[in-house]
Every structure is written in C-alpha cells, then in structure tokens.
Specification:
single chain, 13 helices, binds iron/sulfur cluster, 11 strands, globular, pyruvate-formate lyase- activating enzyme
Length: 285
C-alpha cells in the first residue's frame, strides 16, 4: 500500500559514497516498489534502518506529495551552498528509491519535481532508474535538458533475463535497452549503469548493443560499491553464491576488471567505473 506524506526537506547534502558523485540527492519516495525484484537483493538501502524504520525492504512505499514545493523552498540556499562548498549544484535522483516506481504513473511526484526544476534548475541532474517507465517523463526531461546538464542513467545488471536462485528483474533487459535507445534518440545523454554488475551470458554482444543505444556505460560491482569495506554487506546476501554458480570468479574485482577492459576496447572513452563513472568521469579508451 502506498502512503502519502509531506516532508520538511527534500534536498539531502551528500556524504560517503555519493559525495564524489553529487552535492545533493533527492528522493521523491521513501522505500522502493522494486525491492523484491533482482536489483533489490543487493540493494544497500535495505540496511539503512533509519530509512526502512524496521519494515521489510520492498514492502512499503511512501509518496512525498509536497516534494516539488519543498524543492522550490530549498533550492536557493542549497544551490549557493553547493557552488561554494562543492563542485557545483549536482543532484542525484535517486539514491534510495527509484524515481519511476509503478505508482509514479498515477501520482506524478517525480514529474512534478522535474517541472519545478525547469524554473530553478540544478547545474547538473543525474536521473537514476531501473525502469523503462522513465519514458513516461520524456517531455519533462527534454525540457529540463535545455536548462541544465542532464544525464539519464538506466540500470541493466546483466544481459540474462533470469538468474537461477534469484528473483526476476522488475522489467526485462530488452525493454530497458529499448528505453535507452528511445532516450538517446530523443537527444538525451543516456548512460547504461551495469549496477549491481552480474554475470553476463554474452559480454561482447551486450557491450556492442550498449554502444549502440547509450552514450556511455558504467560498471558498479558490489565489492567496489555497496558502501561497506570489500562488499561485506552483499557478501552476506544470496547474490555472491548465485553469481559464482553461474560464472566462477564473477564475485571478484578481477572479473570486473576483465569486463571493463573489454568494454574499453569496444567503447573507447565511454566507460566508467564505480563512483567516478556515476560522476561522469569516463576512462580513456
Ligand atoms: S530500484 Fe534501486 S532503490 Fe529500488 S530496490 Fe532496486 S536498487 Fe534498490
């Protein structure tokens, strides 16, 4: 069930892993409807008790009805702070929910924030989603791309539609690749984030397809990016064993590095890794 709420703050100053990526994160929702799907298995947010308030990850969603109004209240002060204290006013939407949960189609919270940003834009907006439902906000994104630097990150963890022993993804790989193509064809800077990075069936085919439908690709392996030293949190989940059963070695950084090297050969200058990649710093070819 979706609860409706009003918040006092919507722009969160970044810290930890996100600090080198953005000045602020913005969550239109608390919780995530995709929590019981494939990406939810390793989703680090489920370990944040302040955010889950003891509820099972994927079982709750709270819509922040006044997100757009609060953004407009906070933007002047936070933009000034970010330009003085950070490398510009860079918003990551979102780090602890998906801005395009299924409920967004009816509630329009994310869309209302995107419209508010058109009058008071950040310097850079990174829209991060696991869902092709992002296409529902295409008009708002195109309008915003005329006011600020905008990147849409579409997460595709693997080229496999199912991984034995793990839940299904919330949407098919094919639908997300098609969504990336549609975003890019519309003129938006589009990045495929392989996050969390899972075993690939045919790496060459997948990377070639990514090179056709996206401007760049970013790899985020749990060992380097789950917010705990050496991926400790994810090592306690079902994910590493399922990865190793499919492809021995795939739960190691050596495996990630081999795929990254392959991607660099196919997409020179368009490959990022971890925090640097999310921040838009791509590796040279
Ligand atoms: S879409 Fe993002 S926030 Fe939601 S469960 Fe998946 S990884 Fe977590």
């Amino acid at each position: 069930m979706t609860e409706r709420t009003e918040v006092r703050s919507i722009l969160t100053r970044s810290s930890g892993y996100l600090r080198s990526v953005c000045s602020h994160s913005l969550q239109p929702y608390r919780g995530c409807s995709y929590g019981n799907s494939l990406c939810g298995v390793a989703c680090y947010v489920q370990h944040n008790r302040w955010l889950t308030r003891g509820e099972a990850w994927g079982s709750f969603l709270e819509a922040r009805d006044n997100a757009a109004a609060v953004y407009l209240e906070q933007v002047t002060r936070e933009r000034k702070w970010a330009r003085e204290r950070r490398d510009g006013f860079v918003i990551f939407m979102s780090s602890s929910t998906d801005p395009f949960v299924p409920q967004e189609a009816a509630l329009g919270i994310t869309a209302s924030v995107l419209r508010a940003m058109q009058s008071e834009p950040p310097d850079t907006l990174i829209v991060q989603t696991h869902s092709p439902r992002v296409l529902g906000a295409l008009d708002e994104l195109l309008a915003l791309a005329r006011c600020c630097e905008l990147r849409v990150h579409l997460s595709i963890e693997t080229d496999r539609e199912r991984l034995p022993g793990l839940p299904a993804p919330a949407s098919s790989v094919a639908s997300r690749l098609d969504a990336a193509a549609a975003l890019r064809n519309a003129g938006l800077r589009t990045v495929i984030t392989v996050s969390p990075m899972l075993p690939l069936h045919d790496a060459t085919r997948f990377l070639t397809r990514c090179s056709e439908v996206a401007d760049a690709i970013v790899f985020d392996h749990f060992i380097g990016g789950d917010g705990s030293p050496g991926g400790e949190r994810t090592l306690r989940t079902a994910l590493p064993a399922a990865m190793e059963a499919l492809e021995p070695g795939s739960s190691t950084l050596a495996w990630r590095n081999a795929i990254v090297a392959q991607a660099r050969a196919l997409l020179p200058g368009r490959v990022g890794v971890g925090q640097d990649g999310f921040a838009g710093r791509m590796l040279p070819g």
